[in-house]
Amino acid sequence: MRIGVACLYYEIDKVLNIIEKNKDFINHIEIGIDTANQIDEIAPFIDKIKELGLSIGIHLAMEINTSENIEFIRENWAKFCFEMCKSLEKFNPSYFNIHMGYAIKNRFLKNNCKYMKNSVDFFLKLSDYLEKLSIKPIVTVENSYNLIKGDVINTGTTKEEFKYIFENTKEIRLKNKSPYFCFDTGHYILNKDDYFSLKDFTKVVHISDCNGEEDNHLGIFCGRLKKVDLKKAIDMNPDYAVIEVKYDYIEESIKNVKDFFKPK
Predict the structure, then answer these.
(1) How far apart are CA 142 and CA 189, in angstroms?
(2) Residue 229: left (phi > 0), alpha (psi -120 to 50), or beta?
(3) Which domain holds residue 157?
(4) Could you give the CA distance from residue 208 to residue 221 in angstroms, rounded to a whole number?
(5) What total number of domains does the chain contain?
(6) Tens digit of each residue's pLDDT (9 = 90 or more) over 29-86
(7) What is the SS3 string spanning 15-71?
(8) CATH at residue 147
């Protein structure tokens, strides 16, 4: 298991300095990138990343909607993900992480299976595109939550939605290792379900905390995250465990989670 820190593309310089001070513990970085022009912003740091021996994960834009009901737009989301992956090929990322997406609330509640089928179709389309890459990173999809009342809701907020997708993408997962699960502990606080039962599909865990009212990325154990739930998340045995907190909380959070990774 590799242990990492998450950051947005414009924070990479500062975060690499923290990682350097903790290189005996941290050996992975997950970078949030929304658009192609942001890739140029991280390019100057690739030598530093290699020098520190870090593996790289990429968190793609939250706007991506695998559940999109309009086929033309869903196809173009798959193309967008492929183009981003292609542009990032030179960084040799281990995985690309995305959220499942969103839907019109009343339509989703009436027929959520339709939107899960849309997501399956998205991953099948994306799989075909990713075959064109020289690298073969995995794609992980992350649990989400719903807090704000309105006409649009997030998808990917229950264990059953993920089970449906994983059960219906067995063929491509055997072929190119995607999609898999990213379990976010902060999102779990806001929208609980038995995600721990998805252990066999889990490749990434986001170690995050919040106040229980919003996804505010507090320092670890400064919000509602319980030690027992962090232990259960780590026991899912992901390939990557990533501390995902605001920049100001990173160093303290590294100290707070170290004991959970000590050899037993």
Answers:
(1) 14
(2) alpha
(3) 2-261
(4) 9
(5) 1
(6) 999 999 999 999 999 999 999 999 999 999 999 999 999 999 999 999 999 999 999 9
(7) HHHHHHHCCCCCCEEEEECCCHHHHHHHHHHHHHHHHCCCEEEEECCCCCCCCCCCH
(8) 3.20.20.150
